[in-house]
Write the structure tokens for this entry.
Amino acid sequence: MINPSNPAQTKQTPIWPVHCIAGTPGSDLISEINSSAINYVVEKGRDKRVEMYSAFADAFGNKSDAASMDLAAKLKEKSVSHLYVVGLTGDCCVKATAIDGKREGFEVYVLEEVQRSVNAGEDGWVGAKKEMEEVGVKVVSVEGPEVKKANKLAKEYEKEGGGYENEAGSKNEPEKGAPAQKSDAKKDEEVKADEPEEKKEDAKKEKADKPKANSGKKATGKTGEIKAKAPKKEKKTPTEGTRKSSRIGTKRNAPAEEGTKEKAPAKKAKSAKK
């Protein structure tokens, strides 16, 4: 294999069969991967003249059109510091990506259970682990503390309002160096927690005094005016004084009935004389 940027430089490499052709099922992501959580997809190996195992550069370390983007520059732009590398194959593309990532200054972990190699022995995965560890790449387990810490940080990031950003920019994540955005509900809770107790009580009273939208009554004026109209309930329940006054009125009408009774005998007397 000849270096396109320097024809004098050559390298021995295996010849791989045609695979992962764009636009074919071989290049599709498997259904088990949550594609909505993927930030970027790097297309690599687009230059037929040279092999590209690493997602960072070709086999000679060139960053060219062989890749669809400069992965190292994009990760640094997003303030990424730790890389967790998985996939196929452990003794080739995974190994090359992990080593290049370390050279770019990232803290790199390879998850042993989430890779598969072409070969298993010294000329395969066993030898690949030795090469990676020599440059500072750490091969860890999915059950190890490194992965658990990453999962915890990811959940906290999403809980605080962070999001994933794909190539179209449909979802935004916090700007470089900026704190994660908090939801409006969480902001309101924090503001209420900082308020003095007196203000909280006033807010509760004010909320209780506001008319409900489905009450059927039209609210007019200020809150104070609504409070002034509240005593209307007294008309529904008569007081003791009202009961007494109604009784007194009945007694006053009694003499009129007695006078009517006195006139009755006079009519009887006139009829007797006739």
In short: Residues 190 and 267 are 93 Å apart (CA to CA). The chain has a mean pLDDT of 74. Residues 254-273 form the longest helix (20 residues). The radius of gyration is 43 Å.
